[in-house]
Structure to design on (1017 residues):
């Protein structure tokens, strides 16, 4: 069979393969080992399927590819419309890349209600991929909300001590925020009679939507609030540390790796795509919030005694970079924002795995409980260092490229933004390396740490692919940016002045 | 002229087909009443239940038969169109699922079954008739048939004081409310000279609207608002729902509500009732808010679901606040879809509650649900799906229903009401989520025995679950049906002469 025949179905396949796996899993008997192997096979299969996308992607083409558009419900006019461009493709691949690693990292650490855990994980994967592939606003909202339940259950059932509080807080925060997006989507439908992203975008751009100028600012805010809570942008970030600290490792990995990117992806796709004028209009305060997020997140991370909380706050800081890049409306800034999303997904995902590995051995995340771990766990320490350096932004590793591009974009927009954001890079080096020093160097202060076992085979299999990805992304970013660049250029078409500013100056 | 109308006044064969479901359900109800003293106590439970179930299935089949011959019957008192067929199916299907989930409940609670099943069938007759009646007096009679059956059913746990209390409360307040309705009908007659919905509609459109009509509308709205448990006529709901037998709570929170909403749709849209906008706006906003806020602090699951049903009545009423004909059509179909989705998820949720409650309804507090995810994963997963649908999470009927209602409201530019609605549905998520949290995230602190799911209940649960998911994933067919019904309902009020001639007392079959 010609592989190209797959193209019309590939997005459907990639999206629903994990769900199909989850349904099969329901029928499997409760033999934990079989369940784990089966989930691993399913998630690897999804990953392999998703590789079809970058392989067959036309890089120069800025439009949506692998599109499928079928009518789902005739009235209201809802379509099963999926398609990806350079922006969403890599987020899909990021999701499918991280999920098998989540299965591996949970291999030993989840031993109660194993079946439920892996069912939820696979459902989660489908919902996440769906968010990135849908081009119909209804379908998008459908998947958007569908991510809530599995995540809340993963936190609430498999988490640590204050899991219920964290799960409910996570759920309510994101639920309340996203109903405003629902209201905005419904308004758009009422005035355009379409849920189709491309149709609505073109109608708005050509000024054919009745009452639009009066409502535009509210619509922008409706979408923006939902995305800002998800990112999370300062001051909507308070659910994140709780959710991360209480979540099981795999939950944290998906939460930081992919779930937060739903917010930034949404801003890039919907806020910029549908409301370019309002985006420009609101950019100043959004960028200021992003800057506060960068600096504030970094400073709070610095003083955290809890390793997982530290990583969680570092996410707030890093995602601030993404928002800053997006709202700089420059080619470099947007490219950088996309790249930070991917890099952050890989390296923070790995950091959460590493934190989880430690928690499994000592049942604590307190940094003061450790010290001198480099001698009992040399492989672990080396892997950790590698990921920390990637996260800090060492050149030739993935963190550097994205942050550099965002900063250059921010400088083009307004130098002071660039300068302030650049301090974030310094802070991040500070808190991560300081944490590393306290955990791995010095003398062993707690005797029990002397006998901690080093990385097991499963753990290596989970962490090392992230390290490898961090290296490849740092050395050859063009592999990713080649597809991202045209899509970003297309996204910026509605920003003529700003683009000309890039070209002209 | 006089002779022809006399001839037509005599019911003909086709007239009986147009009330066939009602006839069949009544016949089965009477058979159960007759058999009740003849079969011995032990066997009666199952046998009579099965007869009742057969009755509902026959009722569903006869509804299908009835749908083949749409039109007016019995001197224009009954109209069979896709609107009434939709609600016939809904009401009778609810009755069937409730009967299925009652089998085990009756045995566990040791309640004698005879009249119970007969009353469910008689109640269904009243509700079905409510949905096809186009004559206000007949609507009133049907309303009474359905209400009296539910009053008695509410008090069926005879040994429990709470059940008797709830029955009495429901009866007193309910009669009061129906009196309001009747008063409204009388005033409407005074203002327009008729109790026929078509004629009222025409006379209202022909001339200036008298003050009396507004009063009549308001009074009728009070009566129907009580039946659908809309604020500010909702005070009875929590107590009555708590005291009634759990399957009956499931029944009365869905079937009579659906029927009352059908009447309200006819009264509001077919009559094109004047001055209704703020009436409905306020009732909708109040119901959503009071229902959700009230539910936040409940510890008894039946009371919680009672408040939730008030809130859902509020969401549903949002769809009634449409005024222009085009928006009315979307509003009607949104309301119809919502009733169906709500019925599916709520009947299912109450089926779980009635199974879990055990003898004497001992286990009905939220605490009892702690750890259910571990002790009975299947039951917990089922309840979770219904709760997610009540929250309005994608893939479930509840999500699509809410989506459709709010989308209709925004189309009619009801931005304020929509915002109140979406914010309320976010608040509502909290208390449903609390039950899910209890089931999955806490360990049980006391011994709560959970029996295996018996066959009948299993089918009831599976039916409601399939319906909930079907409405959430493939809503197209039901939606088209609802839209068709909305057109049918609105076509009746078009005041052009050719159509008016058709609605004159004559055999003319309505365009279908």
């Amino acid at each position: 069979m010609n592989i190209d025949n797959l193209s019309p179905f590939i997005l459907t396949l990639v999206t629903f393969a994990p769900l199909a796996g989850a349904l099969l899993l329901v029928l499997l008997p409760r033999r934990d080992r079989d369940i784990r192997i089966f989930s691993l096979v399913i998630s690897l299969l999804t990953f392999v399927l998703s590789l079809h996308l970058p392989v067959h992607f036309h890089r120069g083409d800025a439009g949506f590819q692998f599109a499928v558009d079928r009518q789902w419900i005739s009235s209201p006019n809802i379509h099963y419309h999926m398609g990806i461009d350079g922006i969403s493709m890599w987020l899909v691949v990021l999701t499918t890349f991280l999920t098998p690693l989540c299965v591996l990292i949970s291999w030993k650490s989840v031993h109660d209600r194993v079946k439920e855990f892996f069912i939820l994980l696979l459902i989660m994967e489908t919902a996440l991929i769906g968010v990135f592939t849908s081009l119909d606003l209804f379908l998008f909202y459908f998947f958007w909300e569908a991510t809530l339940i599995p995540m809340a259950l993963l936190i609430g059932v498999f988490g640590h001590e204050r899991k219920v509080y964290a799960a409910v807080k996570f759920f309510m925060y994101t639920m309340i925020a996203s109903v405003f997006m629902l209201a905005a989507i419904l308004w758009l439908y009422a005035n355009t009679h379409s849920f189709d992203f491309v149709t609505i975008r073109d109608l708005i751009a050509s000024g054919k939507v009745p009452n639009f100028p009066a409502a535009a600012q509210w619509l922008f805010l409706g979408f923006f609030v939902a995305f800002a809570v998800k990112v999370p942008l300062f001051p909507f970030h308070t659910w994140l540390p709780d959710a991360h600290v209480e979540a099981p490792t795999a939950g944290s990995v998906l939460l930081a790796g992919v779930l937060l990117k739903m917010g930034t992806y949404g801003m890039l796709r919907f806020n910029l795509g549908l409301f370019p004028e309002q985006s420009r209009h609101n950019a100043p305060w959004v960028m200021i919030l992003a800057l506060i997020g960068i600096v504030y997140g970094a400073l709070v991370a610095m003083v955290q005694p809890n390793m997982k909380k530290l990583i969680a706050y570092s996410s707030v800081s890093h995602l601030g970079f993404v928002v800053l890049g997006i709202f700089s409306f420059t080619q470099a800034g947007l490219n950088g924002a996309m790249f930070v999303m991917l890099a952050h997904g890989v390296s923070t995902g790995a950091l959460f795995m590493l934190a989880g590995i430690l928690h499994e051995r000592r049942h604590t995340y307190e940094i003061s409980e450790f010290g001198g771990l480099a001698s009992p766990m040399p492989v672990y320490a080396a892997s950790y260092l590698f990921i920390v350096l990637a996260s800090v932004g060492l050149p030739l590793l993935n963190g550097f490229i994205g942050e550099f591009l965002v900063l250059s974009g921010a400088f083009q927009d307004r130098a002071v933004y660039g300068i302030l954001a650049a301090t974030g890079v310094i802070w991040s080096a500070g808190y991560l390396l300081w944490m590393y020093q306290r955990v791995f160097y010095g003398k062993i202060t707690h005797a029990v740490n002397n006998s901690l076992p080093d990385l097991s085979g499963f753990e290596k299999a989970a962490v090392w692919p992230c390290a490898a990805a961090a290296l490849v992304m740092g050395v050859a970013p063009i592999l990713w940016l080649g597809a991202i660049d045209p899509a970003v250029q297309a996204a910026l078409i509605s920003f003529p002045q700003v683009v000309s500013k890039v070209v002209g100056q | 002229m006089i002779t022809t109308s006399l001839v037509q006044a005599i019911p003909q064969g086709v007239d009986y087909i147009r009330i066939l479901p009602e006839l069949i359900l009544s016949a089965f109800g009477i058979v159960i009443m007759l058999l009740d003293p003849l079969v011995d106590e032990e066997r009666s439970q199952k046998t009579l239940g099965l007869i009742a179930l057969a009755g509902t299935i026959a009722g569903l089949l006869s509804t299908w038969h009835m749908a083949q011959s749409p039109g007016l019957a019995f001197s224009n008192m009954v109209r069979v169109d896709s609107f009434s067929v939709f609600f016939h199916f809904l009401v009778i299907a609810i009755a069937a699922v409730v009967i299925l989930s009652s089998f085990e409940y009756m045995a566990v609670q040791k309640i004698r079954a005879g009249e119970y099943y007969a009353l469910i069938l008689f109640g269904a007759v009243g509700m079905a008739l409510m949905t096809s009646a186009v004559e206000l007096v007949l609507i009133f009679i049907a309303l009474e048939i359905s209400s009296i059956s539910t009053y008695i059913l509410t008090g069926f746990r005879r040994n429990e004081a709470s059940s008797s209390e709830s029955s009495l409360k429901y009866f007193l307040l309910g009669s009061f409310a129906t009196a309001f309705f009747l008063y409204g009908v009388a005033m409407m007659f005074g203002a327009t000279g008729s109790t026929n919905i078509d004629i009222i509609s025409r006379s209202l459109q022909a001339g200036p609207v008298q003050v009396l009509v507004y009063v009549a509308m308001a009074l009728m709205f009070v009566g129907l608002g009580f039946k659908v448990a809309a604020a500010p006529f909702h005070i009875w709901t929590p107590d009555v729902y708590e005291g009634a037998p759990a399957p009956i709570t499931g029944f009365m929170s869905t079937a009579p509500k659906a029927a009352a909403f059908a009447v309200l749709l006819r009264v509001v849209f077919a009559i094109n009732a004047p001055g209704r906008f703020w009436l409905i706006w306020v009732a909708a906003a109040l119901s959503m808010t009071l229902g959700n806020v009230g539910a936040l602090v409940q510890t008894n699951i039946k009371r919680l679901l009672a408040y939730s049903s008030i809130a859902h009545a509020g969401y549903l009423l949002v769809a009634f606040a449409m005024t222009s004909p085009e928006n009315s059509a979307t509003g009607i179909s949104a309301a119809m879809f919502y009733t169906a989705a709500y019925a599916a998820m709520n009947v299912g949720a109450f089926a779980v509650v009635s199974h879990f409650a055990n003898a004497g309804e001992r286990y009905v507090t939220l605490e009892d649900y702690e750890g259910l995810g571990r002790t009975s994963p299947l039951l917990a997963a089922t309840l979770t799906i219904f709760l997610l649908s009540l929250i309005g999470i994608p893939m479930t009927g509840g999500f699509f229903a809410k989506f459709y209602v709010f989308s209709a409201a925004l189309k009619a530019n009801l931005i304020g009401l929509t915002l109140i609605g979406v914010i309320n549905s976010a608040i509502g998520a909290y208390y449903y989520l609390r039950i899910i949290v209890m089931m999955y995230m806490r360990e049980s602190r006391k011994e709560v025995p959970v029996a295996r799911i018996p066959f009948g209940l299993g089918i009831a649960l599976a039916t409601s679950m399939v319906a909930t998911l079907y409405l959430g994933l493939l809503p197209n067919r039901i939606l088209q049906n609802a839209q068709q019904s909305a057109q049918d309902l609105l076509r009746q009020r078009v005041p052009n002469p050719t159509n008016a001639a058709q609605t004159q007392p004559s055999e003319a079959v309505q365009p279908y």
Remarks:
- The CA atoms of residues 150 and 252 of chain B lie 7 Å apart.
- Chain B touches chain A at residues 373-374, 377, 388, 393-395, 399, 403-404, 406-407, 410-411, 413, 415, 418-419, 422-423, 425-427, 429-430, 433-434, 436-437, 440-442, 475-476, 479-480, 483 (CB under 8 Å).
- Chain B has one domain: 13-502.
